[in-house]
Specification:
The structure holds 2 protein chains of 2 kinds. By secondary structure, chain A is an alpha+beta fold. Helices cover 18% and strands 43% of the residues of chain A. In chain A, the strands form 2 sheets. Chain A has a 3-stranded antiparallel β-sheet with strand order 1-2-5, with no helix packed on it. A 3-stranded antiparallel β-sheet of chain A has the order 4-3-6, with no helix packed on it. In chain A, a hairpin with a 2-residue loop joins strand 3 and strand 4. In chain A, 26% of the residues are buried. Chain B is mainly α. Chain B folds into 2 domains: 133 residues, no CATH class; 135 residues, no CATH class. Chain B is built from 12 helices and no strands. The longest helix of chain B has 26 residues. The chains are: A alpha+beta, B mainly alpha.
């Protein structure tokens, strides 16, 4: 089938005059079936998952949980790596994360902004403190966000 | 040559075409954030519209000279697979998917949104980079409806390249009503000139259709209408129309209608 029939669009039979192959209907190569099957599987996954998400996915505004992952002392302060997880039904944009560290009567506030946290997904960042967050009490929360679209 | 080997070559061409047509989008930041932000229902509608569009396109430009519905469907599915895989691999390499699981909304949304233009590229590549020239069958088949279909695909395809960017909204905000009207006039003029005056494929047949007024009413106006519709649809899909005043939506549609009109006019070049 490297040759394309020049005329007579509709009938595949017209080209069987030249080549010795008598079959009026051309064989579909196995590779064609295989790649179409891969395409079908991917399309079904994408459509199925999106439909499932649209129908049964979580509803409601973004609900963002912030938790501490790890504290690392560095030469430039204590780095508290935090993770934000969106339990809500909508993605959030420009999520402001704030951490308030209270230790020995003093308070220090640090914060950063995450561009996007999709629903059911996580994003991470770091807060930097002068004192060790493990020694004091660290309050983590998302203080605000913009709607993603 | 072995049919499988021939098909394998066509498939590699399809990957090349998908790459060529979709890399600007894969390397556009808004596409990634839109993959997260696009409302699920709109993404679903978009994906569901992509497949019949690919089948229709395969009818005109499949990476195999096919005649039967079964083959068009197989080609369209394969093209979607090519687009999806290419988008997944490249977005993965670019580190876009680094923190997302593939089966979350974030991961899948990003890939699915990029897969559609890549799939169109995959389908077109079969013909663009292929050995065969424009066959007689395409020209014969191009009735008014298929002409509109091709214009719609061309419009959607070119508009899709810029539709996700913030600039569409920004340009709309910057333009006053007179500038908007001027852009409408420019778009229509370009559409008409591109299709009927510059000697692109299919021009002769269209010119036979009648004089200036007739071609203008019968081809250019519907073409611009389709371009505007496609622009509006894409803006809606990307959530750009939500809560926006009607006149701003109109301006945005006209702004995006500019590349869409060029896409509609040149659809015949590419497809």
């Amino acid at each position: 089938m490297a040759q394309k029939p020049k005329a007579a669009s509709r009938s595949p039979a017209s080209r069987s005059k030249g080549p010795p192959k008598p079959a009026p209907v051309k064989e579909t190569p196995a590779l064609e079936w295989a790649s179409a099957a891969v395409g079908l599987a991917l399309a079904a996954t994408a459509i199925g998952f999106t439909a499932w998400d649209a129908l049964f996915g979580a509803k409601g505004p973004p609900a963002i949980e912030v938790k501490l992952v790890e504290v690392t002392p560095t030469a430039h302060g204590y780095v508290a790596q935090v993770e934000a997880f969106n339990h809500g039904g909508e993605p959030a944009a420009q999520v402001q994360i704030e951490g308030v560290l209270s230790s020995q009567g003093a308070q220090q506030t640090s914060g950063f902004t995450i561009d996007y946290v999709a629903e059911g997904s996580k994003a991470s960042g770091g807060l930097v403190f002068e004192k060790d967050p493990r020694a004091g009490e660290l309050m983590l929360r998302a203080t605000g966000f913009a709607d993603a679209s | 040559m072995d049919a499988n080997a021939v098909y394998a070559r066509a498939l590699s061409r399809a990957f090349g075409g998908a790459l060529l047509f979709s890399f600007p989008l894969l390397m556009t930041m808004e596409m990634w954030s839109l993959g997260i932000a696009v409302e699920r229902w709109r993404l679903l509608v978009f994906l569901l519209l992509t497949l019949p569009m690919l089948i229709g396109l395969s009818y005109y430009a499949g990476f195999e000279p096919t005649f039967r519905l079964k083959d068009e469907v197989l080609d369209a599915l394969a093209a979607f697979g090519v687009g999806f895989l290419l988008a997944a691999v490249l977005l993965g390499v670019f580190g876009v998917l680094r923190r997302d699981d593939i089966l979350t909304q974030a991961g899948l949304g990003k890939i699915a949104l990029c897969a559609a233009p890549a799939a169109v590229g995959a389908l077109l590549a079969g013909k663009q980079l292929g050995e065969r020239g424009p066959g007689a069958r395409e020209k014969e088949r191009a009735g008014p409806l298929s002409e509109l279909f091709l214009m719609a695909v061309g419009a959607a395809f070119l508009a899709f390249n810029v539709a996700p960017t913030e600039e569409m909204v920004l340009i709309a905000y910057q333009m006053g009503p007179w500038a908007t009207l001027a852009l409408v006039a420019i778009s229509i003029l370009l559409l008409h000139v591109f299709v009927y005056q510059l000697g692109f494929p299919g021009e002769t047949r269209r010119r036979e259709a009648g004089d200036f007024r007739r071609t203008f009413v019968a081809f250019t106006c519907p073409g611009y209408g389709v371009a505007l519709l496609m622009s509006l649809y894409l803006l809606w899909t990307f959530g750009r129309t939500d809560g926006v005043a009607a006149h701003e939506i109109a301006t945005m549609t006209v702004v995006l209608g500019f590349p869409a009109a060029i896409g509609a006019a040149t659809a015949r070049l590419v497809i």
